[in-house]
Design goal:
A 6-stranded antiparallel β-sheet has the order 1-6-2-3-4-5. Helix 5 packs parallel to helix 7 and helix 6 packs across helix 7. The protein folds into 3 domains: 83 residues; 52 residues, no CATH class; 105 residues. By secondary structure, it is an alpha+beta fold. A hairpin with a 2-residue loop joins strand 2 and strand 3. It is globular, with a radius of gyration of 20 Å. The longest helix has 19 residues.
């Protein structure tokens, strides 16, 4: 069922096309074009609207994350049947923005205390990841930094949309263990990890190589049970980012397609390193 709640705007800087009618650009041609773009590694957002009904589809690096409406997820075939005479738009996006769009698709709005721009301090301090919404203004944020979109008006109240945070320790550890192992097989990283950990230990004490609470040996991540998830998550991200940077490696250089599909990926903050 295609429902009637509003569709959040996305950054328009890299529009492929906007507000085309499927009466003039038929669904068959739209589908063929998107399949070709997908084969070329397209990252972006496709929107279809008919009256107050809408559907949105998201691709990241040539992989379709899926489609959704205000009522839940939807298939491409169902969308075409439900919106036969749609107005369509296609926007290319940075991978991290596309991931935010997808991961926040079912998030509940959370009001922020205060008004814009005062709330920006809170977003930066809490390293906010998600969407900031105020009226029709939407902006996309990663680790407390705005990536794109439009700022709220001064004095306006705001709400945030954030993806569900995975605080399940075994799931989080399994994800990072696999990511580090895959990286190590392609680019041995033990010594580099140890070196960057020394520099990061002041901000992330669990990385102190002498304490040995978080360590990588032979590409195997080992974490002491005493290290909590709230401390572990930012520490692993900081160390991994710094390790890739020192090795001169990009995420695109690594065989991690299956990891990108895991729910942990969307909130890990990794795409900024791509």
């Amino acid at each position: 069922m295609l429902t009637t709640l509003p569709l959040l705007s996305v950054p328009q800087d890299l529009a492929v096309y906007s507000h085309l009618s499927t009466n003039h650009y038929p669904w068959t041609e739209v589908t063929v074009d998107l399949a070709a773009r997908q084969g070329q590694g397209f990252t972006g957002v496709f929107d279809a609207m008919q009256g107050q009904r809408w559907a949105r589809f998201v691709w990241v690096r040539g992989q379709m994350r899926g489609g959704f409406t205000a009522g839940g997820e939807v298939s491409w075939a169902t969308m075409m049947r439900g919106l036969p005479q749609a107005i369509i738009s296609l926007q290319e996006q940075e991978p991290v923005v596309a991931e935010i769009v997808w991961s926040c698709r079912q998030s509940k709005p959370a009001p922020l205390r205060g008004a814009w721009p005062d709330v920006q301090v809170t977003l930066e301090r809490e390293r906010f990841f998600g969407v900031l919404v105020s009226g029709t203004a939407c902006s996309y944020w990663e680790t407390g930094r705005m990536l794109g979109g439009t700022f709220p008006k001064p004095g306006a109240a705001c709400v945030t949309l954030s993806p569900p945070v995975i605080d399940d320790r075994p799931t989080l550890l399994a994800f990072w263990m696999e990511l580090i192992a895959v990286t190590h097989r392609a680019f041995p990283l033990d010594e580099t990890w140890r070196q960057v950990s020394i520099g990061l230990a002041a901000d992330h004490p669990c990385l102190d190589p002498f304490a040995q609470e978080v360590r990588v040996l032979g590409g195997v991540l080992q974490v002491d049970q005493e290290v909590g998830v709230s401390e572990l998550r930012p520490a692993l991200l900081a160390a991994y980012r710094a390790t890739l940077a020192r090795l001169g490696v990009r995420l695109a250089d690594l065989p991690i397609a299956s990891l990108r599909e895991q729910p942990v990926w969307a909130t890990a903050g990794l795409e900024v390193t791509a």
